Amino acid sequence: MSEIIGNVLFGADQAVGSWMGRRLPDGALDPKAKYLGLIVDKRMAGAVAYQRFNGVHCEAAIVIENGRALTRSALHAIFFYPFNTMQAKAISVMVPSTNLQSLNLATKLGFTPEALIEFAAHDGSTLVVLKMFRDQCRWIENGQGQFGATGT
User: CA nearest 42: which of 18, 66, 75?
Assistant: First the structure.
């Protein structure tokens, strides 16, 4: 059963995954992924997929179509889910080096570059792997940082 809390949609993995898959360049998402939808004006405005969880780490894919979806409560939910619900110690995102807007968002959220994979992105560019550790996350209460710290 799906539920919207604030502007975050929980429990609608199939619908959110379908919406997200249509917006990703390769459309490929792990069939076991878990999803959060982000709602603005009663419409899907963004989504996060948590995939390939191995007990300590997961990969996240993020699609944002409307920046108003990134409220403080949504950011809290985006990071609470992998770090508290899944008990991940770290999460990674992979962004093509040509996607400056997404690289900027990832670093503003607190992700730090960890690796470069040349000629690996869908457009032939370098893929940048960015990581965040639980104790460095400022968007959750139990991270080392403060929940709701300034920044976006």
Answer: 66
> How many beta carbons lie within 10 A of that of residue 22, not counting itself?
9
Q: Which residues pair with 48 in a beta bridge?
A: 36, 62
Residue 77 CA to chain centroid, in angstroms? Answer: 10
* Closest alpha carbon to 57 in 129, 9, 146: 129
Closest CA to 36 of 53, 28, 26, 69: 69
> What tokens appear for 33 in the block?
């992924």
| Exposure of 76 in the CB half-sphere (CA atoms within 13 A) | 14
Residue whose entry in the numeric block shows the structure tokens 């991270």: 143
- Mean pLDDT, the chain cut into blocks of 10 residues (152 residues total): 93 94 84 95 96 96 95 95 96 96 96 96 94 96 48 38
Fill in the DSSP letter of residue 96: E
Q: Where are the alpha helices (DSSP H) in 10-130?
A: 13-21, 72-80, 100-109
Residue with tokens 């690996």: 120
pTM assigned to the model: 0.87
| DSSP-based three-state secondary structure for 109 | helix
